[in-house]
Please model this.
Amino acid sequence: MHSSNPERAPLGLKVAVVGVLLFLHLPAAIILLYAFSADEQTFTFPPPGLTGQWFVAALARSDLWNAFWLSVRVALMATLLALVLGTLAATAVHRSQFFGREAISLLLILPIALPGIVTGIALRSAMGLSGVPFSFWTVVVGHATFCVVVVYNNVIARYRRMARSQIEASMDLGASTFETFRYVVLPHIATALLAGGMLSFALSFDEVIVTTFTAGQQMTLPIWIFTQLTRPRNRPLTNVVAVFVLAVTFIPILLAHRLTQGSEGES
Model:
């Protein structure tokens, strides 16, 4: 029997939680502070003054907007590719019994564990040997390698909570494979797909290491930020853009978290 009054956490635990939160999010708060700093070349604390001029200057930069829209297009295409491949892989692994299934499952999630520089070097070498020119699509393929893992993990976890009897009942009632997937399977995994897609978009949008090895002359927003760091007069602009990137990636991650929390509550 559960008590109606949950036990309060001890003071030490509360202090530890606050310490962890500060450790994780204080750097982002500092970036937000210096995005409004009136000092354009040095980082002094406290800032000599606050201004919003850097936001106006950032909005007027055409190269920034070009990099932003390129990042959006790459993230959308990488997410779409990951949704298709990740769902197919999860369906095959879950519904089929074959020798080496666990090994294949491990290989499917391995790219997310590899350092980005290893993945970038491997992709660059493979593309160089095959003669594929670096372009928008090489960046999409590079990002899809780790976005597939996110979708796969979400979908396979949802499949494992789905009763196989539902699929069997649909087939017994005369539904085709496509109809069973559309009316039975897809509604069940829809929130997992949406959550995986949002996380994939967020990961792709701010990826820099793999992009550096596969972009060629393409300049995504993270690479734009990286190149501006070597120019002291543009450092305030990089802070503004970093805040913008945080906001863009925070929204899909928050929505994905809410979706997965809701699905766990229903189950």
Summary: The chain has a mean pLDDT of 78. Residues 112 and 220 are 21 Å apart (CA to CA). The radius of gyration is 23 Å. The domain at 54-266 is CATH 1.10.3720.10 (MetI-like fold).
